Amino acid sequence: MNQNEYNTSVDQHADGMFRFILKNIRDEDKARDVVQDSFEKLWRNVENVNFLKVKSYLYTTAYHTMIDLIRREKRKEDFEKVDVREYAHSEHYSDLGEILEEALERLSEVQRSVVLLRDYEGYSYLEIAKITDLTESQVKVYIYRARVHLKNYIGSIESIV
Question: DSSP state, 45?
């Protein structure tokens, strides 16, 4: 890959990567850092990356960088102070987007990532498997479990609207 192809990659993929990471970690500054780190890693490895496969490389790198960031932050948190009432949802609220965001926050990092890659970014199961270093079967299981969790959390659409 040459410098022009690298610049084209930045133009084509930076916004999508930012949206994907932001949906997962909900912090614009950290999402920007993850995207920047991913492009830095691409630049360091630019001779070894095929331009035709740069999208997959970038999303895979961004995903792993995000997971590393989440793991580092989890070490700082105190898991003993989990309030069980946070996991129940009984309020009637009309902002579906906010309810979906709240429901997505309740998923594990892997479940949230695979659901967002599938439903928000439109990747196939095979592409998600390559990005996340999971098998295609594992991806399907994580997506299924995440959707069941979302359905149980949100309840029926009639109760929301």
Answer: T
Cβ neighbour number for residue 30 with a 10 Å cutoff: 17
**Multiple choice CATH, 1-81, 1.10.1740, 1.10.150, 2.60.120, 3.30.870:** 1.10.1740
Short-list 4, 36, 16, CA closest to 131: 16
Read off the pTM: 0.55
Q: What separation, in Å, do the N-terminal and C-terminal C-alpha atoms of the chain show?
A: 50
- Give alpha helix (H) positions in 1-156: 3-25, 28-44, 54-76, 96-105, 109-115, 125-132, 136-154
Least confident of 10-24, 82-96, 139-153: 82-96
Query: In 77-135, which residue ranges form alpha helices assigned H by DSSP?
Result: 96-105, 109-115, 125-132
Report residue 151 CA to chain centroid gap. 19
Q: For 25-81, what is each residue's pLDDT tens digit? A: 889 999 999 999 999 999 999 989 889 999 999 999 999 999 988 888 877 665 555
Asked if the 94-160 domain carries CATH number 3.40.1000.70, the reply is no
